[in-house]
Amino acid sequence: MNDDITRVGSGGPWEDLYGYARAVQAGPWILTSGCTSTVDGKVVHVGDPAAQTKEAFRVALDALVDAGGTVRDVVRTRMYVTDPAHADPVGRAHGELFGLVRPAATLVVVSRLLHPDQLVEVEVEAYHHG
Questions:
Q1: The pairing of beta strand 74-81 with beta strand 104-109
Q2: Edge-to-edge strand order for the sheet containing 23-26?
Q3: DSSP per-residue string spanning 9-26
Q4: pLDDT tens-digit profile of 53-107?
Q5: Domains in the chain with CATH codes
């Protein structure tokens, strides 16, 4: 194993089963896996894309902090939504969280996510040289 790489788990049900970390810190970079509004194995905020976005980013940012970063270190976000109509509420939720940081951002419409109640999945990339 590389000593410059730290892997952070959140205890989510799929991390061990599927063999991934919630976040990986590699040198100055911190990358999160895809995060949804799944809490303790259950989707929360069913039917509310904005609230799901905020919850998913909370999961991602908690992992980022656990890996030594802060929201100010975020340089890129990705958002995957299941319906084009969700773009505006998801984008506005992103703006509430990252409006002062202004990372590069991508929003993509996908046919579906793993669970039918999941409306949005997010990823975060941060550069922390601190």
A1: parallel
A2: 5-8, 23-26, 29-32, 120-127, 74-81, 104-109
A3: ----HHHHHHT--SEEEE
A4: 999 999 999 999 999 999 999 999 999 999 999 999 999 999 999 999 999 999 9
A5: 5-127 (3.30.1330.40)
